[in-house]
Design goal:
The chain is an alpha/beta fold. 40% of the residues lie in helices and 20% in strands. A 7-stranded mixed beta sheet has the order 3-2-1-4-5-7-6, with helices on both faces. The protein is globular. Bound molecules: S-adenosylmethionine (SAM).
């Protein structure tokens, strides 16, 4: 098994789950959450794939992804997270707004991208406030590394974009460094986006926010 598969960017923690989140999971899970083993055909069946696909890694409680999907109903959104209360929260929001353009995975995003997503198919991959893993001995847990960028290069469509927002200057510099080594991506201006929960937390702590976008040529 490759290093990319064995070292994870997350530690699965259940966290506190509310009664409402539990109920949404029990009643509506199968309407929104797809299985890794069902592959690309499950997405073809669930979404209108003639529209572009935006994939978000680590949507957290899902509020910003939900807002984005409401304001852009002609785009498909694939949200991936391993945090069960967040899935419960987002399923509740999707159910309340009856949105049809969003599907979710409760899986390691790297595995979903590797095993489910077809090559040249993603319009955008967004990663907002990834766990920064600031300690030196944890750097290898960061989601972004050269294998991950290879994977993006394979799965993004031509001119597709990877968007990162973080409040960690170290994560930002490290990402810039990795992408600047590549000839297949170029840096472009970042567009306005929905604020996220972790972003608000970072701002409240006085952190600076760094946004960066790379386009595949
Ligand atoms: C710091 S939180 C940020 C949440 C949200 N994007 C925000 O800005 O509020 C990072 C999230 O990424 C998820 N995560 C980390 N690594 C992941 C992976 N490999 N696959 C899926 N989700 C992951 C965590 O479970 C967590 O919900």
């Amino acid at each position: 098994m490759s290093e990319q598969r064995t070292i994870r960017s997350f530690v699965r923690r259940q966290g506190r789950i509310t009664a409402g989140q539990k109920r949404s999971i029990q009643e509506h899970w199968s309407n929104y959450v797809l299985n890794l083993s069902d592959g690309w055909p499950a997405l073809e069946q669930a979404l209108n794939l003639s529209n572009p696909i935006i994939l978000e890694i680590g949507f957290g409680m899902g509020v910003s992804l939900h807002n984005q999907a409401i304001s852009d109903r002609q785009t498909n959104f694939i949200g991936i997270d391993v945090h069960l209360p967040g899935l419960g929260n987002l399923i509740r929001l999707l159910q309340e707004s009856q949105l049809e353009n969003v599907r979710l995975y409760y899986e390691n995003a790297v595995e979903v991208i590797q095993r489910v997503i077809e090559d040249d198919s993603l319009h955008r991959v967004q990663l907002f406030f990834p766990d920064p893993w600031p300690k030196k001995r944890h750097l290898k847990r960061r989601l972004i590394n050269e294998h991950f960028i290879d994977l993006l290069s394979k799965k993004l469509e031509k001119n597709g974009e990877f968007v990162l927002a973080t409040d960690s200057q170290s994560y930002f510099n490290y990402t810039l460094h990795l992408f600047l080594l590549r000839s297949d991506f170029k840096r472009v201006d970042s567009q306005k986006r929905e604020p996220t929960k972790y972003e608000k937390r970072g701002l409240a702590l006085g952190h600076q926010i760094f946004d960066v976008t790379f386009k595949l040529s």
